[in-house]
C-alpha cells in the first residue's frame, strides 16, 4: 500500500497545518491480491506524528483518506505493513533567503541573545537535571535564554563552575559534572541584570545511573537471513517452518505463490520481503566475525533469531527455540562465546506485542476455540476462523499472520518475562524491544521487564523501538535508550543531505539536537542508540542520493555518506549501523510485492573498499578519542551550512567536531590555542577551513 502526502509541510512553522494522506491501490495490486486470494479490507496509517499508533484511513470514492494537523518538521510514517516506508516534510521555499554567494563566510560560536527572564528550573528528582554517567554527577538547570551571566555549584566547601551547554526555543541549559559521591549542593548564579541568586540546598541521593560501556562502543545490526550463508545444509529448514504451513487464507489458494529458496545473488522475487529465502545463518555470522572486528564493533544487534514463519522473524512460532534455518542452540552458544572473546556484547530482538500463526497458544485457540486455555491470550472476534484472516482476531497493523497478544493477561505477561529471563541467562547482554508502544499495560510491563533483565545482568542494555523524541521511556524505570531515529534520521540525515541552507541549516540542526538533549537525562544521552538506517528504512546511501539497489553511487552521495557517519560517530552515545552500510550498498523501499530492497542479501564481493576503509578508520579514530565516548556535549556553532559542537569535559581532552554540508569550503572560528585534526593531522589556529561536504575532529594540541 502506498500513502501519498498531498500537502508539503513548511519547515520551521510553529502552527499546525492540515496534511492529507491518501491511499489508492497501486497499479497491478488488485491482480496480485486476487492471485493470493486476498482483498484490501482496511487501510491504516502509523507515523512518528502520533507515536506510531494506528489511525484508520476512511474510504471515499475508492480512495482512502485521512487528514492530520501537523506542525512543521520531518516525519516518518508507515502505510500498511510491511510494504511501505516513507519520510514526509518538505521545506517552504520562502522560509529563509538563499545563501549568499561570494567569499567563504567565517562562522563563529553561536551565542544566545539575552531575554532578561530568568525562569530558573531545577529538580534533583527529575533525571533530566541530575544523573550519573562517566564517573561524574551531571547537574543541570534550565533558564531563560541569555538570562544568566555565570553560575556555579557549591558542594562540600568547593565551587564548581557551570557552563552554558544548550540553547533553544527561548531557554538554555547550564551544566557541570561533579564528583560522583556528592549528595548535597547549591546552585549560585548571577543574572544578566547583575542580580545574584542562590537555589538549594538540593539532595541527589538516588540519581539515574548510565551504562558507560555503551558510549564507548560501536554497534552493528545483523539481519541474519540476508547476512551470509555459512551452512547450506540448513537452507531447506526455512520452508519447513514457514508461515505458509499455518496460513489457511494462503495455503488453500491453489494459485498462490509458495515460499521458495534462492541462490545468494538471485534477484528479488515476488516474496522478497518475507518468504524468499537466501540461506543466511549463524554459521555465516561466525565466518564474517573478523569483518566486524576490523570495524571496531563493540555491540551486535541480531534481528529475531527464534523459530518463526518468515525471513524477517517477527512472527514468532517458538520463543525458546533458535530458528532451524539459522542453526541451533549449540551454534548460538559458539556465536556468543566468539563475540564475547572479541569484547563484543550481543543483544537479541524481543517481540512481545504479537506472535506468528505457528505459536503454540494460537494454534490451540484455532483447534479448541473457547475451550482453549489460551483463549484469553488473544482477542478473538469470532471462531471458528481460518488462520491468516485478520478480521477474526486482533492483529498487528491488520496483518493476519501477526495475531496480537493480550499482554494485559497476567499469564501472557508472565510467559514473556520468563522468555526474556531465559535468554539473558543464556548469555545475551540485553535486548531490543519491537513495537513497545503496542503493549496495553506499558508502564507495568516494562518496569517488570527491566527488573527481570537487570536482575540477571545489571549492566544489560534495553532499547525500545520508539521512532520519536519521547523522554517518558527514559526515566530509569523502563528503557535505557530509544532507537534514536529522532536524532539519526530527523537531524543527521537531514543535515547531511545538503540541498542548501534553506532546507536545513546548521543552526536548525543544533537547535533540534538541543531539544532532545535538554529533555533526556545526560546519562541516557551517553548511552544512546544512534542510528540513521536499519532493516526498516532505505539504505542510508540511497537516502543520500546514492541510487537504487545495485546502482553506482555518485561521488557526492559517497561524500554525504561520510559526512553523515562522521556526525553520527561524533555524537554522545553509540553509533550503530545496518549490515552492509559500511560497504556502500544501496537499497530502497520497492513497490509491492518486490519491496524492502534494503534487505537484499549482502553481496560481499561488491563491497566498496574505499567506503569500508573509511568506516574502519573512523572506528579507530573514535576509539582513540576519549572525549567522543562520554556523555558531555556543548553547542558551539550553527550557521549556514556549518554545524559544530564540543565533546568532553572542560579542562580535560576536548574535541571540537565541525561539519560542513555545503558544496564549497567554509571557515570556522576556533577557541584559543592550536587545534589538530585527528583524521588528517593538520593543525589550525584562530580558524579552520572545513572541506566541502566534509568534517573535522579538532583536538586541542598540548603545548
Automatic annotation (TrEMBL):
Residues 221-622 form the Glycosyl hydrolase family 13 catalytic domain. Gene3D superfamilies: Glycosidases, Golgi alpha-mannosidase II, Oligo-1,6-glucosidase, Domain 2. It holds the Pfam family Alpha-amylase. Coiled coil: none annotated. The keyword Metal-binding does not apply. It comes from the Bacteria. The keyword Hydrolase applies. GO terms for biological process: carbohydrate metabolic process. Keywords: Glycosidase, Hydrolase. Residues 79-122 are annotated as: Disordered. InterPro entries: GH, GH13_cat_dom, Glyco_hydro_b, O16G_dom_2. GO terms for molecular function: hydrolase activity, acting on glycosyl bonds. This is Alpha amylase catalytic region. The lineage of its organism: Bacteria, Thermotogati, Deinococcota, Deinococci, Thermales.
Amino acid at each position: 500500500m502506498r500513502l501519498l502526502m498531498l500537502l508539503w509541510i513548511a519547515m520551521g512553522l510553529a502552527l499546525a497545518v492540515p496534511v492529507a494522506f491518501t491511499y489508492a491501490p497501486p497499479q497491478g495490486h488488485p491482480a496480485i491480491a486476487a492471485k493470493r486470494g486476498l482483498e484490501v479490507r482496511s487501510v491504516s496509517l502509523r507515523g512518528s506524528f502520533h507515536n506510531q499508533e494506528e489511525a484508520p484511513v476512511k474510504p471515499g470514492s475508492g480512495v482512502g483518506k485521512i487528514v492530520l494537523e501537523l506542525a512543521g518538521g520531518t516525519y516518518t510514517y508507515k502505510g500498511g505493513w510491511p510494504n511501505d516506508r516513507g519520510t514526509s516534510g518538505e521545506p517552504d521555499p520562502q522560509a529563509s533567503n538563499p545563501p549568499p554567494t561570494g567569499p567563504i563566510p567565517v562562522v563563529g560560536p553561536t551565542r544566545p541573545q539575552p531575554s532578561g527572564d530568568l525562569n530558573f528550573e531545577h529538580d534533583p528528582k527529575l533525571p533530566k537535571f541530575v544523573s550519573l554517567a562517566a564517573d561524574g554527577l551531571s547537574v543541570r538547570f534550565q533558564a531563560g535564554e541569555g538570562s544568566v551571566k555565570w553560575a556555579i555549584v557549591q558542594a562540600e566547601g568547593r565551587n564548581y563552575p557551570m557552563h552554558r551547554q544548550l540553547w533553544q526555543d527561548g531557554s538554555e541549559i547550564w551544566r557541570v559534572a561533579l564528583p560522583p559521591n556528592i549528595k548535597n549542593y547549591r546552585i549560585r548564579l548571577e543574572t544578566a541584570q547583575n542580580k545574584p541568586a542562590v537555589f538549594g540546598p538540593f539532595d541527589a541521593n538516588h540519581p539515574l545511573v548510565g551504562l558507560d560501556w555503551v558510549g564507548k562502543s560501536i554497534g552493528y545490526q545483523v539481519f541474519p537471513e540476508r547476512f551470509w550463508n555459512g551452512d547450506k545444509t540448513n537452507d531447506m529448514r526455512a520452508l519447513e517452518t514457514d508461515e505458509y504451513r499455518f496460513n489457511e487464507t494462503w495455503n488453500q489458494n491453489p494459485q498462490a505463490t509458495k515460499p521458495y529458496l534462492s541462490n545468494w545473488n538471485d534477484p528479488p522475487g515476488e516474496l522478497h520481503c518475507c518468504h524468499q529465502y537466501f540461506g543466511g545463518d549463524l554459521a555465516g555470522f561466525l565466518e564474517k566475525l573478523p569483518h566486524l572486528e576490523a570495524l571496531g564493533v563493540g555491540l551486535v544487534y541480531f534481528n529475531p533469531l527464534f523459530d518463526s514463519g518468515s525471513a524477517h522473524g517477527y512472527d514468532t512460532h517458538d520463543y525458546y527455540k533458535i530458528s532451524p534455518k539459522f542453526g541451533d542452540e549449540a551454534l548460538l552458544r559458539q556465536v556468543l562465546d566468539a563475540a564475547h572473546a572479541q569484547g563484543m556484547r550481543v543483544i537479541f530482538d524481543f517481540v512481545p506485542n504479537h506472535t506468528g500463526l505457528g505459536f503454540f497458544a494460537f494454534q490451540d485457540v484455532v483447534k479448541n476455540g473457547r475451550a482453549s486455555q489460551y483463549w484469553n491470550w488473544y482477542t478473538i472476534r469470532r471462531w471458528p476462523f481460518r488462520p491468516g484472516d485478520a478480521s477474526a482476531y486482533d492483529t498487528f497493523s491488520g496483518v493476519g499472520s501477526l495475531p496480537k497478544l493480550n499482554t494485559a493477561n497476567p499469564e501472557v505477561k508472565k510467559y514473556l518475562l520468563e522468555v526474556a529471563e531465559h535468554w539473558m541467562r543464556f548469555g545475551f547482554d540485553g535486548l531490543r524491544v519491537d513495537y513497545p508502544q503496542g503493549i496495553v499495560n506499558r508502564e507495568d510491563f516494562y518496569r517488570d521487564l527491566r527488573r527481570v533483565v537487570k536482575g540477571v545482568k545489571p549492566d544489560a542494555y534495553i532499547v525500545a523501538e520508539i521512532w520519536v523524541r519521547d523522554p517518558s521511556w527514559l526515566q530509569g524505570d523502563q528503557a535505557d535508550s530509544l532507537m534514536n531515529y529522532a536524532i539519526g534520521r530527523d537531524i543527521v540525515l537531514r543535515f547531511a543531505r545538503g540541498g542548501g541552507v534553506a532546507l536545513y541549516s546548521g543552526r536548525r540542526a543544533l537547535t533540534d539536537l538541543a531539544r532532545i538533549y535538554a529533555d533526556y537525562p545526560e546519562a541516557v544521552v551517553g548511552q544512546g542508540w544512534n542510528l540513521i538506517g536499519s532493516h526498516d528504512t532505505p539504505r542510508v546511501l540511497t537516502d543520500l542520493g546514492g541510487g537504487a539497489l545495485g546502482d553506482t553511487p555518485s561521488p557526492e552521495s559517497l561524500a554525504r555518506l561520510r559526512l553523515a557517519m562522521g556526525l553520527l560517530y561524533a555524537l554522545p552515545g553509540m553509533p550503530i549501523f545496518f549490515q552492509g552500510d559500511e560497504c556502500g550498498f544501496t537499497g530502497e523501499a520497492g513497490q509491492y510485492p518486490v519491496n524492502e530492497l534494503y534487505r537484499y542479501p549482502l553481496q560481499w564481493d561488491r563491497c566498496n573498499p574505499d567506503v569500508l576503509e573509511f568506516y574502519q578508520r573512523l572506528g579507530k579514530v573514535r576509539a582513540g578519542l576519549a572525549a567522543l565516548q562520554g556523555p558531555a556535549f556543548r553547542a558551539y556553532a550553527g550557521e549556514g551550512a556549518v554545524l559544530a559542537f564540543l565533546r568532553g569535559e572542560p579542562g580535560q581532552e576536548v574535541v571540537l567536531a565541525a561539519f560542513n554540508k555545503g558544496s564549497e569550503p567554509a571557515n570556522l572560528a576556533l577557541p584559543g590555542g592550536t587545534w589538530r585534526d585527528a583524521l588528517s593531522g593538520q593543525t589550525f589556529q584562530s580558524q579552520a577551513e572545513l572541506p566541502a561536504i566534509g568534517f573535522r575532529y579538532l583536538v586541542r594540541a598540548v603545548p
